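Agenda item 2: zinc ion complex prediction
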Amino acid sequence: MRVTNQGMRDWFGMFPSSTFADDSCHLIAAMGNTGVIESNDGLVIYDLPIRQYGKKVFREIREFTDKQVKFIIYSHGHFDHCFGYAPFIEEIKEKNWEMPKIIAHENCVRRFEKYKLLDKYHDWLNKQQFASVSGRKQKILVSAHETLDPTIIMHGNEVQYSFKLGDCTFNIYHDKGETDDSIWLWVPEKRLICAGDLMVSSFPNVGNPYKVQRYPKQWAIAMEKMMKKNAEYLIPGHGPLIKGKEKVKDVLSITAEAMHFVHDEVVKRLNESKWFEQIYHEILEIYPEKFKKHKYLRPMYGCVRFAIHASYRLYHGWYNSGNPTDLFPAKSEAIAKEFLRLNSEENYIEHAKKLYEEGKLQLALHILDIIIKGTDEMHNKILLEALNLKYKILKQKANDETSFIAANIIDNAAYQIKEKIKDLKLN
Ligand SMILES: [Zn+2]
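Presented output:
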């Protein structure tokens, strides 16, 4: 699985931190990035990393300044943007400082509530999404029950919250994108935008298969609002500092263009009364080369395939195929058993092998699933053969897959099949 390429190393914060704007601003690299703005009256911190990187980020900041932290802004409530607060709070208590003001959108508060309600479920999901880096047996990725809660809360569609600290102005805007609680920061005196995960230095994480609805169209609108600022610097949620007016404009505009494209092409086809499968394959056919080639649209975490789902789900319920067979389907095991009554397992496995040899991996998987789902004899030789071939295909697909999320989904299934093979051999 490609978790060691440069793109993914950037995503996980494995690159040097940056200092810029006459040494008054800093990007501290971690998972995700922390932005630090030094005013002459104290520090404003935009985002804290994942809990495990809190100490690293704190130490790095304290190497260049001993100024008090006055404000902490959460770009959104994901666990890699606001959970690494412990060392900062320890310092505040030690020095008897006043607590910093914590700024977030009201949907971030709702998110924290949701995390508390669904902690085990999210832990289970995140273990799958991050299995290749966190390991499958790690106990808990992040405890959602311990949060540093916001004290200044932006409400509804309130578009701007501003404050001054020393010689700097901080303008905060709310826009939906990866989440419904995103807020981004503009510091005019420093010509700096802190974007949070509205910019992840690769294809936007819109349409994550595990997670709730995301917002491609509004993402594009957020990018266009940022473009109007004519910023010199942009701190992304993940990846190195984006520097220079032209570069900042280019990454914002290509992202906006890609989001408009996917969203608008889906809408056009919904208006032509098309169902998901047709929409999906048609858009992949026409997805422009300029998007495929752009460094900031690399499909290494999110990808266009997910974005089509996200756009469709904005306007459509769960009945995707237009075929009433799929409305209230029978159990997949029962369907597979009927196929096996029509044709023998031997024929299916031979056909799957042929498809595999022809490089038709996806079709081979569909055929193998008939054997795997329909065969319940514990010692069935063909079942073992089918599981082994499925394992081999999934490993190959995970290895070829560019999207970290998709690769993890596929690789996890391969791991489970391997466990099943072990069990079958033992029985
Ligand atoms: Zn993030």
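Discussion summary: The chain has two domains: 6-259, 330-426.
Owner for follow-up: CH.
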